[in-house]
From TrEMBL:
It comes from the Bacteria. Keywords: Amino-acid biosynthesis, Branched-chain amino acid biosynthesis, Magnesium, Metal-binding, NADP, Oxidoreductase. The keyword Amino-acid biosynthesis applies. This is Ketol-acid reductoisomerase (NADP(+)). It comes from Caldalkalibacillus uzonensis. Mg(2+) 2 binds at D190, E226, E230. The gene is ilvC. It catalyses: (2R,3R)-2,3-dihydroxy-3-methylpentanoate + NADP(+) = (S)-2-ethyl-2-hydroxy-3-oxobutanoate + NADPH + H(+); (2R)-2,3-dihydroxy-3-methylbutanoate + NADP(+) = (2S)-2-acetolactate + NADPH + H(+).
C-alpha cells in the first residue's frame, strides 16, 4: 500500500522564514508561486526578461534573474520547460548553489535521465502535482487540491522529505493526497500516462472517432459534440464516482455498448503497443529522442503540431466554442488560438 499524506499529517513550519525561488512562471510556476504565497510562504520568481516577467510583476511578485533568485533562495524550484532546464541550470543555477540549499523539481525527467546532475551538497527532491498548472491554481482557489507525488533524490540536511512534504502542502496537494515515490517511478509513470492515456491516447481516440463519423458523412458539428465536447461530461462522472458512477448515469444501452465494444477498440494489440511505449520510456530511448529533437530545433514537434492544429475538429471546435462563452472562459489557449 502506498504511503499517503494528508493535510493533518504535514506541517508548514519547516518553510517558515525560508525563501522559495520559483524559477519560471508558466503553467506550474504561476500556480506554485501563488498557492505558496497564499499560504504565507515567502516566494521570489526567477526568470529571463519577457512576457512571464511582466505577468509575475503584475501579480505582485518580486522578480529577479534566475541566478539572483537562486542566490536569495533556500529552496530553488525549477519550473522551466523540461527541455530548457539543463542549459539554464548549468549557466544560471549551478554556479550559485550553496551547500544545504534545496534544488526541487516538479518532474523527474532531467535528473532521472541525467540531463541535470546536481552537486552532492544540496537536497534534491520533487513535488509533482498530478494535474495541469492552471488546474493546480483553480482547484486551490476553490478550496480543494490536486493530488501530488513527492520523492527525495538526495538528502543532505536530513530535512529533505519534510521540506518536500511542506512544499506539497503549500501548493495544496495534501488536500487531495500526497504519495511518496521515487524519481524513477514518477518519471516513468508520468511519461507513460501522458503518452498512452491522458494526452496521446485520449487525443487519438477523439480524433479517430471524429474522423470515422465525418468520413461517413455525418455533420462535423454533431460529431464534435458527440466525440469531443461530451468527453468532459463523461470524464467528470468518472472523476467523481469512478467508472461505476459513469455507468450508473448513462443509459443501459450506452452501458451495454461500453461493456461490449470498449474492449474491441482498446484491445490486446493496443496493450502490446502500450508495453512497447513503456519499454522505450524505461530504456531511455524516448528521453534520448526528445533531447535530440530539441537539439535539432524541433522539426517534427513543430510540423506535427501545425498539422494537428489545422485538423477539421479544431476548426469546427473553435467556431462552436465561440458560442459557448461558459465553456471558454479560462483563456489558457489565448496566445495559441490567435496565432493558429
Ligand atoms: P511552461 O512551459 O509553462 O513554463 C514556461 C516558463 O518558463 C515561462 O515562464 C517562461 O518564460 C520560462 N522560461 C522558459 N525558458 C526560459 C529560460 N531560458 N530562462 C528563463 N525562463 C524561461 O512549463 P510547465 O509549467 O509546463 O513545466 C514546468 C515543469 O513542471 C516541468 O518540469 C514539467 O514537466 C512539470 N510539470 C508540468 C505540468 C503542467 O501542467 N504543465 C504538470 C506536472 C509537472 P517566458 O515567458 O520568458 O518564455
Ligand atoms: Mg503528468
Ligand atoms: Mg509530464
Amino acid at each position: 500500500m502506498a504511503k499517503m499524506y494528508y493535510d493533518q499529517d504535514v506541517q508548514l513550519d519547516v518553510l517558515q522564514g525560508k525563501t522559495v525561488a520559483v524559477i519560471g512562471y508558466g503553467s506550474q510556476g504561476h500556480a506554485h508561486a501563488q498557492n505558496l504565497r497564499d499560504n504565507g510562504i515567502n516566494v521570489v520568481i526567477g526568470l529571463r526578461r519577457g512576457k512571464s516577467w511582466e505577468k509575475a510583476e503584475e501579480d505582485g511578485f518580486q522578480v529577479y534573474s534566475v541566478s539572483e533568485a537562486t542566490q536569495q533562495a533556500d529552496i530553488v524550484m525549477l519550473l522551466l520547460p523540461d527541455e530548457s532546464q539543463p542549459q539554464v541550470y548549468e549557466q544560471e543555477i549551478k554556479p550559485y548553489l550553496r551547500e544545504n540549499q534545496a534544488l526541487a523539481f516538479a518532474h523527474g525527467f532531467n535528473v532521472h535521465f541525467n540531463q541535470v546532475v546536481p552537486p552532492d551538497n544540496v537536497d534534491v527532491f520533487l513535488v509533482a502535482p498530478k494535474g495541469p498548472g492552471h488546474v493546480v491554481r483553480r482547484v486551490f482557489q476553490e478550496g480543494g487540491g490536486v493530488p501530488g507525488l513527492i520523492a527525495v533524490y538526495q538528502d543532505v540536511t536530513g530535512q529533505a522529505k519534510e521540506i518536500a512534504l511542506a512544499y506539497s502542502k503549500g501548493i495544496g496537494c495534501t488536500r487531495a493526497a500526497v504519495i511518496e515515490t521515487t524519481f524513477r517511478e514518477e518519471t516513468e509513470t508520468d511519461l507513460f500516462g501522458e503518452q498512452a492515456v491522458l494526452c496521446g491516447g485520449l487525443a487519438a481516440l477523439i480524433k479517430a472517432g471524429f474522423e470515422t463519423l465525418t468520413e461517413a458523412g455525418y455533420q462535423p458539428e454533431v460529431v464534435y459534440f458527440e466525440c469531443l465536447h461530451e468527453m468532459k461530461l463523461i470524464v467528470d462522472l468518472i472523476y467523481e464516482e469512478g467508472l461505476a458512477g459513469m455507468r450508473y448515469s448513462v443509459s443501459d444501452t450506452a452501458q451495454w455498448g461500453d461493456l461490449t465494444a470498449g474492449p474491441r477498440i482498446i484491445n490486446e494489440q493496443t496493450k502490446q503497443e502500450m508495453k512497447k511505449l513503456l519499454e522505450e520510456i524505461q530504456s531511455g530511448q524516448f528521453a534520448k529522442g526528445w533531447v535530440l529533437e530539441n537539439q535539432a530545433n524541433r522539426p517534427m514537434f513543430n510540423a506535427l503540431t501545425r498539422r494537428e492544429n489545422e485538423h477539421l475538429i479544431e476548426q469546427v471546435g473553435r467556431q462552436l466554442r465561440e458560442k459557448m462563452p461558459f465553456v471558454k472562459g479560462k483563456g489558457v489557449l489565448k496566445d495559441v488560438v490567435t496565432s493558429a
